[in-house]
Description:
Layout: H1 2-56, H2 58-86, H3 96-105, E1 115-118, H4 123-129, E2 134-137, E3 144-149, E4 154-159, H5 160-186
Parallel strand pairs: 1-2
Antiparallel strand pairs: 1-3, 3-4
Amino acid sequence: MLQHLRQQGEETISRLWQQAGAKVLEQRAEAERRLTGMRDQARAESTARLDLLSRTGLMEAKRQADRRRITAHNQLAERLKALALANLALLRTEEYDRVFALLVRELPAGHEWQGATVHPDDDGRAAAALPRALVATDRRISGGLEVTAGEGRVRIVNTFEKRLERTWPELLPVLLHELIHGVEHDDPAL
């Protein structure tokens, strides 16, 4: 039975990742459309840069281009993170009851959870899963939960937002590389 539950959980997670992957593909297509616009703008700016190069020299122009590229990368990174955060609620699919149960099972054993903070739609789930915990709600939580024990000395955050925050340093370079790599292949001047 445990193996069956584990298999169901893995299947659920697999479906969620597939759904999230489809959403990422949609967002990637939108980002590529935006990048095309940015590329067109960069080409227009490139013409203006030629005049700058003739007046101020190649090194100054290169420094400015590098600063703009860094700024553009930083702006793109901020937009990507905002998009990711804004779309966390999409993970609340018909399989969310199972996902929530999995997140609860990930909590460390040996604690009597006294408090739980969840999305308002999850207050019933939290009350059922943690019957001794005082349940509070917070709309800033897209999914998952935050729990406390030991009069607040132990705090575990297992929310979608925290999971994204933990994986973002690894995820961002991959996203930036994929988005920028395509643009740079199209226009080596960028």
